[in-house]
Amino acid sequence: SYDTPIIPIMVGSSEKCIKLSQALLKEGIIMKPKLYPAVPKGLERLRIFMNSLHTKEQVDYTFSTLANLYK
């Protein structure tokens, strides 16, 4: 994701990626999982697409929600 608006959040398992993606969607946050076989097993991740229209509040909400759900 170097030099792109895509930020990977490494999760490490397909099951956890799917559950986290679904929980985030319930909070109004869309983060698509990248799962095996698109990525190697153990390197499953969520992808965040950032752009200049996101407000500071939206970014703060996204990352605080992600941190709370990731526990």
The coarse overall form would be: globular
Main beta sheet strand tally, sense and closure: 3 strands, antiparallel
With strands numbered from the N-terminus, the spatial order across the biggest sheet is 1-3-2
Which runs of at least 5 residues are low in confidence (pLDDT < 50)? none
| Element string (H = helix, E = strand) | EHEEH
Mean pLDDT across all residues, rounded?
93
The tally of helices reads 2
Query: What is the SS-derived class?
Result: alpha+beta
Strand tally: 3
Report helical residue fraction: 25-40%
Q: Rg, please?
A: 12 Å
Strand content: 15-25%
Q: What distance separates the N and C termini?
A: 24 Å
Short description:
This protein is α+β, with helices and mostly antiparallel strands.
Written account of the structure:
- It is globular, with a radius of gyration of 12 Å.
- 39% of the residues lie in helices and 18% in strands.
- It is α+β, with helices and mostly antiparallel strands and 71 residues long.
- It has helices at residues 14-26, 56-70, and strands at residues 6-10, 32-34, 45-49.
- The model has no long low-confidence stretch (mean pLDDT 93).
